[in-house]
Amino acid sequence: MARTYGGVPPEQRRAERRERLLTAALELFTSTGFRQAKITQLCTRAGVSTRNFYEEFGSKEEVLRTLHDRINSLALTHVSAALEEVRDADAMTRIAKLLDVFVATVTIDPRMPRLNYVEAVGVSPELEEQHQVWVDRWATFIETEARRAAEAGVAPNRDYRLTAIALVGAATGLLREWQAHEPPLPVEDVGAELRALMLAAITRP
Amino acid sequence: MARTYGGVPPEQRRAERRERLLTAALELFTSTGFRQAKITQLCTRAGVSTRNFYEEFGSKEEVLRTLHDRINSLALTHVSAALEEVRDADAMTRIAKLLDVFVATVTIDPRMPRLNYVEAVGVSPELEEQHQVWVDRWATFIETEARRAAEAGVAPNRDYRLTAIALVGAATGLLREWQAHEPPLPVEDVGAELRALMLAAITRP
DNA sequence: TTTGATCGGTAATTGGGATTTTCACAAGAT
DNA sequence: ATCTTGTGAAAATCCCAATTACCGATCAAA
Questions:
Q1: Which residues pair with B8 in a beta bridge?
Q2: Could you tell me which chain A residue has the CA closest to the CA of B194?
Q3: Are B165 and A155 in contact (CB under 8 A)?
């Protein structure tokens, strides 16, 4: 059953095809748009047959969901690692770090915010649910830092849930604008704005 | 050519059909979703034939664009009128008013934020452009109020462009969450959060 | 009341694209 | 050497919904 081909085990060949499909999908979905992207186009770009496509994914949407998850996971990993590095720093330093790393990660490639904040919106109930889950995770992250600030006495002791959600929205909106804006907005301005906004939102009386 | 039917001039009948189509579309697009909504479904619900549909609109997307514009226009009208009423009030009162009226208008019907912030995203280049235009308008609105606050000496004198865009994003994100959240988020909390966030963002040093 | 134009709904038509299947071949395995 | 199985390309099928064409119904004017 499992048979090595060209010295490459089938597992790996599958994985490579999957990877090529995802790479091609990121490009196609963000250039022509998810709606108008055809599966055949996707396969052609990836150098994969439609048959292989259906071996990896059940539908175009499943590809989109995978990418959406990946991008968020990537950002979360980076942010978590960065926060580990400043584990014992004061609350405000940590918050600044959190945002800097997040913005830096997502703006490496304009296609990432485009896919996450434009193409993956309003596609299906499943994707909306996935979006909700991620908003929740990010909001929890922010909430945790806000509490830490409160405990350190540099922020009031209150419920930060809605503030956190609003800040996630602010980041989303700003990045959506960033990827679409002509002429391009300076990345550092976006990062600085978010940092200042978050500090102001948390330390407000 | 133009002939009255049932005592009703053709102009008016057209307008009524158009209105019924828009009403049905708001309902259909926000329940089954824009993507999966079929034109025939829409026509059935509106009590209009497909033929009449194409007499009014060139495509499903055109209906969506019309609704998107309408909802934004409605909110803008309300907000403008409200600001007229407090023309001579201090900057902070005006800002609070702006947000209260905006939130109040858009949350009258959960289908409005659903359509504007979920269904109308990532549909087509034209719609993205329309979105950009509205973000720009709202941001300009906020910017103007911020400048007024700066002139009154209650806020620093700086460039508020990015802050304004971020605040529009915060409102969008919060309302998107509001319309999807289970159990429902209290509207007054959403309004209060936005008001506090905006004040903090503008008065920050 | 007859006539003729306009209207509106239903019923094809069409076209595009997703999914499946076929086929021929290449590359191990025995 | 022969058999088996994984593979890619392309064709065939199928499905569905947008768009159009037709036909009977409707109403106003003569």
A1: B5
A2: A166
A3: no
* Closest residue in A to B174 (Cα–Cα): A166
pLDDT by residue (tens digit) across A57-79? 999 999 999 999 999 999 999 99
Whole-Å CA distances, A112 to A4, A30, A69, A97, B163 = 35, 9, 11, 20, 22
Regions of chain B with pLDDT less than 70:
1-8
B8: helix, strand or coil: strand
Residues of B whose CB is below 8 A from A179 = none
Cβ-nearest to B201 among A128, A176, A200:
A200
In angstroms, the CA of B6 and the C1' of D26 are apart by 9
The pLDDT of residue A60 is 96
Which residues of chain B lie closer than 8 angstroms to A163, CB-CB? 193, 197
Cα separation, A120 vs A29, whole angstroms: 9
Helices (H), A57-124: 60-85, 91-106, 111-114
The model's pLDDT over B48-84, given as tens digits with 9 standing for 90+, comes to 989 999 989 999 999 999 999 999 999 999 999 999 9
Chain C bases closer than 7 angstroms to a protein Cβ: 5-11, 17-22, 27-29
In the three-class reduction of DSSP (H, G, I as helix; E, B as strand; rest coil), residue B108 is classed as coil
Write out which nucleotides of chain D lie closer than 7 A to a protein Cβ: 5-11, 17-22, 26-29
Q: Which two tokens stand for residue A101?
A: 């790393």
Beta-carbon contacts of A12 under 8 Å, excluding residues fewer than 6 positions away, are none
Q: What is the pTM of this model?
A: 0.94
A35/B124 CB distance under 8 A: yes
Burial B11-49 (b: 16+ CB within 10 A, else e): eeeeeebbebbbebbbebbbeebbeebeeeebbebbebe
The Cβ of residue A39 has, within 10 Å, a number of other Cβ atoms equal to 14
d(CA B193, CA A186): 28
